[in-house]
């Protein structure tokens, strides 16, 4: 009947608006049962279960054999790790696979058979599950003794396919690859040509004393290529040129030319190309997200205009305000946006909304999230008003910064004076007394600010929360120190008592005081701009962090399978030539035994731009004659993580910073308002609105929705 149809239209509108809010595609089934299943699937509980399942299956690598459950990574000192019995982790893994099977089944049903064959991600999802389940069965048939588990490498795919933003980012990266490949090819040509020149310049001669460059770095083609590749990362600079430079200073020209052309020109050219191309593709991705949002809102308008209560005499489609209010009450959306839209509806004099008016209402979703701070308390007493003015003034905050700086300087002076003293000779009286004085001032400053601003307004500022939390922690530590070791006095060096010694307690307090000095950042305009740019990257670029986790995980698992046991304990090793150096020894302690150490080596690679570790690992693997093909693994890691990924991150960092820099002059500096922006809003000023014809054409192509017009 008419009532059932109206309920269906209302539910369709609710789902379409929620799709628009989340930038989801509306190409799914729209019958009553499918809509209920769709909302259940995208509910917080269901998505939380799915996220927990992905976390669990990724975390299994830390307890599977070889287990990472040891305190130290040093194989000389660690106790035998606990390895779970066969079937324990496999049972957990099977439960995760069952959740994924339900997930892919629901997704496939909701989009329909035709859309399923167009969706490559879903097909890859099913293929990954089939391969993983097959490998799981093989693992059980071998009683968990097999050395290669393909499904472990495939696990990051479950994280990847669950995030639409990660898939968009990956698509943007994939679109940028042709342009990046041209510069990488130019780098390869540069590397190959200079390798040939190096083999000709540093060829073997009759004098063995003059052949150190040839022996160490340019003995053959693979060694020459490796030496110059590492030089491209500047890891072996100037070591690689010292033997030749000692022989003839003119040889330095070769290395200078190689470094200038490779590092200063080609690598920076790669950064420029990646910034230019990736920004364009990311802009296209955000443009498609905007189109999805507008399409979802327009679809909601079309189904609501089909309600039986809509006036038949209307010349054009329209939606009643009452129907939209009914939809909004059931829609899950940000309370700020919902209240703003409802206020706009209640202020309208007309009861009907056209398509343009309907769309304009939901532009509230595109606006900056604005956080307004609560008002300060109003005191009746004239004395309290003066107190509020004095301690709420910015100059009082500046005074606090000066005091914090004085505290840092005093700590530095005491540390410099006590640097060479033995613990038994150190007198902690001065440092203890100084800390006590400054912590009391910090407490007084916090209380006076709360008095002037009110507790709610004080806590609404992140800098105040940071400052107040550290002040409370410092006060607790100081009280604990006095209760255990008494008040400071000359010759204050009591015996060790409790969990921490007096020096440990003082050091902990001093570290927190140094950390508290970061409170000056909001008062320094340009420094605050840089910090907010970094914070926005952390908050908004979760997709990049997710893809980085996928890359780390895949390379760590691959490294464990390829190099597990390859670097053997030094006591069982026959040295080739000289005894391994300290760097080689540290590598033996921290090699690919377990997942934590595999990730640690990979993380160490990232921290040092992969160069030092590549150089050390290639040397060790060559010394032990494992396999020269192992170089491919580390070079691939360097290309993906350093050459491509670091440049992508630099590109987004530049885009975010330039955007903030351009907007800082356009927006008033209001102390009571904070603006919070997302990646989509970052490009909002340059996006193009879709036309009426484009939206209606796309709606008429919907595989499951039949429009009345």
TrEMBL record:
GO MF, one annotated term: ligand-gated sodium channel activity
Main subcellular location of this protein, as a coarse class: membrane
The keyword Membrane appears for this protein: yes
Gene Ontology CC annotation, any one: monoatomic ion channel complex
Reaction(s) the record says it catalyses: Ca(2+)(in) = Ca(2+)(out); Na(+)(in) = Na(+)(out)
PANTHER family per record: TWO PORE CALCIUM CHANNEL PROTEIN 2, TWO PORE CHANNEL PROTEIN 2
Family affiliation: Belongs to the calcium channel alpha-1 subunit (TC 1.A.1.11) family. Two pore calcium channel subfamily.
Protein name: Two pore channel protein 2
Species annotation: Rhagologus leucostigma
């Amino acid at each position: 009947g008419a009532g059932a149809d109206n309920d269906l239209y209302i539910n369709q509108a609710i789902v379409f608006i929620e799709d628009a809010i989340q930038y989801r595609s509306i190409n799914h089934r729209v019958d009553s049962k499918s809509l209920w299943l769709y909302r259940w699937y995208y509910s917080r509980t269901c998505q939380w279960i799915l996220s927990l399942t992905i976390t669990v299956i990724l975390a299994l690598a830390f307890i599977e054999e070889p287990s990472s459950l040891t305190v130290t990574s040093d194989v000389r000192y660690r106790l035998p790790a606990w390895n779970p019995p066969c079937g324990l982790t496999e049972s957990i893994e099977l439960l995760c696979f069952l959740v994924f099977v339900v997930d892919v089944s629901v997704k496939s049903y909701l989009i329909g058979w035709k859309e399923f064959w167009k969706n490559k991600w879903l097909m890859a999802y099913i293929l990954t599950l089939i391969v993983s389940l097959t490998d799981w069965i093989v693992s059980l048939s071998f009683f968990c003794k097999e050395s290669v588990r393909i499904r472990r490498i495939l696990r990051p795919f479950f994280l990847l396919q669950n995030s639409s933003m990660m898939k968009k980012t990956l698509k943007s990266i994939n679109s940028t690859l042709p342009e990046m490949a041209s510069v990488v090819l130019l780098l390869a040509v540069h590397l190959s040509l200079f390798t040939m020149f190096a083999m000709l310049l540093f060829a073997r001669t009759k004098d063995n004393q003059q052949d150190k460059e040839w022996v160490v770095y340019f003995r053959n083609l693979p060694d020459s290529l490796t030496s110059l590749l590492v030089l491209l990362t500047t890891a072996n600079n100037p070591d690689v040129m010292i033997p030749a430079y000692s022989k003839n200073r003119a040889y330095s020209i070769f290395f200078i030319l190689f470094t200038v052309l490779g590092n200063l020109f080609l690598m920076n050219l790669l950064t420029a190309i990646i910034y230019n191309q990736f920004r364009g593709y990311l802009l296209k991705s955000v443009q498609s997200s905007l189109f999805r949002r507008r399409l979802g809102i327009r679809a909601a308008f079309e189904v609501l205009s089909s309600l039986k209560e809509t006036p038949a005499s209307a010349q054009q489609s329209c939606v009643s305000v009452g129907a939209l209010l009914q939809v909004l009450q059931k829609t899950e959306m940000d309370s700020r946006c919902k209240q703003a839209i409802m206020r706009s509806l209640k202020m309208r004099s007309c009861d009907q909304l056209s398509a343009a008016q309907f769309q304009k209402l939901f532009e509230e979703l595109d606006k900056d999230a604005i956080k307004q701070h609560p008002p300060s308390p109003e005191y009746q007493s004239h004395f309290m008003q003066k107190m509020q003015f004095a301690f709420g003034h910015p100059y009082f905050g500046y005074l606090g910064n000066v005091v914090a700086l004085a505290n840092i300087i005093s700590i530095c002076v005491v540390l410099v004076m006590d640097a060479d003293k033995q613990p038994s000779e150190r007198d902690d009286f001065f440092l203890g007394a100084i800390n006590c004085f400054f912590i009391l001032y910090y407490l007084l400053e916090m209380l006076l600010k709360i008095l002037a601003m009110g507790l709610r307004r004080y806590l609404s500022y992140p800098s105040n929360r940071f400052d107040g939390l550290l002040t409370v922690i410092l006060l607790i530590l100081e009280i604990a120190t006095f209760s255990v070791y008494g008040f400071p006095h000359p010759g204050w060096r009591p015996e060790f008592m409790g969990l921490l010694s007096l020096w440990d307690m003082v050091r902990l307090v001093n570290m927190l005081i140094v950390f508290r000095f970061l409170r000056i950042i909001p008062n320094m305009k340009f420094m605050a701009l840089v910090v907010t740019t970094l914070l926005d990257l952390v908050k908004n670029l979760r997709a990049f962090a997710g893809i980085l986790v996928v890359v780390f995980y895949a390379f760590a698992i691959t490294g464990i399978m390829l190099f597990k046991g390859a670097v053997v304990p030094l006591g069982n090793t026959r040295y080739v030539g000289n005894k391994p150096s300290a760097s080689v020894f540290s590598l033996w302690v921290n090699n690919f035994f377990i997942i934590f150490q595999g990730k640690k080596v990979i993380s160490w690679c990232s921290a040092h731009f992969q160069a030092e570790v590549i150089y050390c690992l290639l040397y060790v693997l060559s010394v032990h004659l494992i396999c020269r093909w192992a170089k491919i693994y580390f070079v691939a890691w360097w290309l993906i993580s350093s050459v491509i990924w670091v440049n992508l991150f630099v590109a987004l960092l530049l885009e975010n910073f330039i955007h903030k820099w351009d907007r800082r002059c356009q927006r008033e500096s209001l102390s009571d308002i904070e603006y919070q922006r997302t990646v989509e809003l970052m490009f909002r000023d340059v996006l193009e609105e879709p036309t009426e014809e484009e939206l209606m054409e796309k709606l008429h192509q919907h595989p499951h929705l039949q429009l009345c017009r």
